[in-house]
Design brief:
By secondary structure, the chain is α/β, with parallel strands linked by helices. Helices cover about 25% and strands about 20% of the residues.
Length: about 450
């Protein structure tokens, strides 16, 4: 009997963690923290599997909401085996070390959490086994017979470098977990590659399920739209702040800006980046000939960049026109993009350009949906918006029609909807029921078991 149990990431985007009991072999898919929560509330609920077999954890990619709870999982289940792609392993070394200082600020003694050390992260990284895309590998529970195994393959998910969808085969049953998946080309990465043939169960992300795809253009069209608006700001003497995730979005947007400048479509100006994003860019460069990259000749380190964190006085950003790529992508409080945004909104000539998804609970959503003349409350008195604010869409997740295309191509008997808000899950679910009436459909609920 095969059972599916969400520990997090059900009905929300964050703390993604899903347990599958494959006839006594316990496999966890992803192990993330919720970026808008703190302490124990940000973690998946590991108590749900306290008395169940726990043998492996497969990590789809290195974003915080899919990876960052891994050290806490290892504390609870020290003998668990960790497997990812080689690129995700390399990124995990950067992101997990980077998260230690953040956790120390967020976690207090009453949470009952033990913050891991840099030495413990080094040991954890050494324990991660890695497999290339399309390479078959086999999982066997601690108490299983030699021949009682599951076959697993990672498939390129097209989301960020190293991102993988995961196909599990057990006794003729096929389970496909999309992770975060993108069926459209970006600037650096090509689209996802789906496995051939049908599957029995599909665990499907739904991030853009409630978003009208008319508002999600292709990367090339949106890059031209971006250049048109950016040129107006730069030629008027203003500077542009772009909130980005350090992993994935920063590299893709940097490559897009460079290409626009090289072709003369966008005015050449100073570009500011820095911090962990620069280290992540080196992972992109190192792997550019072994991943599914559109143009392997694009090398991010060859793009002239200034250090965002080397600017002592933020007013210096406005002395000459520039473009600043600053984390975090959703402008979480006290991050670089949040602190800079508070300066930027006071600059009449300048602009804030958002380039990705914003959760409604984040400061980024509030800022992205404001305009000149509005007042934004940052915790004190409202501050008037004087700068231009413009939303752009450079998606790294599949549009909702592409999510339905995955269902069409894989022909599953059962679909479990995860990684999305209620509206996203409702839209995708309704469309699946409309066009594929034979499918058994489930909306994942934390702690609620589903039999596969």
């Amino acid at each position: 009997m095969i059972k599916f149990l969400p520990l997090g990431g059900a009905g929300e985007i964050g703390a993604n963690c899903f347990y599958i009991n494959l006839e006594g072999c316990g496999i966890i898919l992803d192990c993330g923290m919720h970026p808008q929560k703190t302490g124990v509330n940000a973690l998946p609920d590991f108590n749900l599997i306290e008395n169940l077999p726990v043998d492996y954890v497969l990590i789809s990619h290195a974003h915080q909401d899919h990876l960052s709870a891994l050290p806490f999982l290892v504390q609870k289940f020290p003998y668990i085996k960790i497997i990812s792609t080689p690129q995700t392993r390399a990124l995990a070394e950067l992101t997990l070390h980077n998260s230690i200082s953040i956790l120390k600020e967020q976690v207090n003694e009453n949470d009952g959490l033990k913050i891991y050390s840099h030495e413990e992260i080094d040991l954890l990284i050494q324990s991660i086994d890695y497999r290339a895309y399309e390479e078959k590998f086999y999982l066997r529970g601690y108490h299983h017979r030699e021949e009682d195994v599951s076959e697993v393959t990672f498939h390129d998910a097209g989301h960020i470098i190293g991102s993988a969808s995961i196909l599990i085969k057990k006794n003729g049953i096929k389970i496909f977990y999309t992770g975060d998946i993108n069926l459209q080309d970006q600037m650096i990465l090509k689209r996802a590659l789906l496995p051939a043939g049908k599957v029995d169960a599909l665990i499907l992300e739904t991030t853009y399920g409630s978003t009208d795809s008319n508002f999600i253009p292709g990367w090339k069209d949106e890059a031209m739209n971006f250049a048109q608006h950016a040129n107006k700001i730069l030629s008027g003497g203003g500077s542009i702040l772009i909130p980005v995730f350090s992993l994935g979005k920063m590299q893709e947007i940097l490559a897009a800006i460079w290409k626009l400048m090289e072709t003369g479509t966008l005015s050449k100006t100073d570009i500011y980046t820095g911090g962990i994003a620069s280290k992540i860019s080196r992972v992109y460069d190192y792997n550019r000939y072994v991943i599914n990259q559109i143009d392997p000749e694009i090398e991010l380190k060859s793009i002239v960049q200034k250090d965002l964190y080397g600017v002592e006085n933020p007013d210096d950003f406005f002395k000459h026109p520039c473009i600043a790529l600053a984390p975090s992508g959703m402008m979480i409080k006290n991050t670089a993009s949040y602190l800079l945004a508070r300066r930027w909104i006071k600059q009449n000539k300048s602009a804030i350009f958002t380039v990705g998804f914003m959760e409604e609970s984040t400061p980024g959503y509030l800022i992205a949906n404001s305009k000149k003349g509005d007042k934004i409350n940052f915790g004190g008195d409202g501050e008037e918006v004087k700068c231009t604010i413009k939303q752009f869409r450079f998606p790294s997740h599949s549009k909702r029609e592409d999510l339905l295309e995955i269902v069409k191509r894989l022909k599953p008997e059962k679909v479990i909807l995860v990684h999305g808000d209620a509206d996203a899950i409702d839209w995708i679910g309704a469309e699946i029921l409309k066009f594929y009436r034979g499918i058994k459909l489930y909306a994942a609920e934390k702690g609620k078991e589903i039999q596969l």
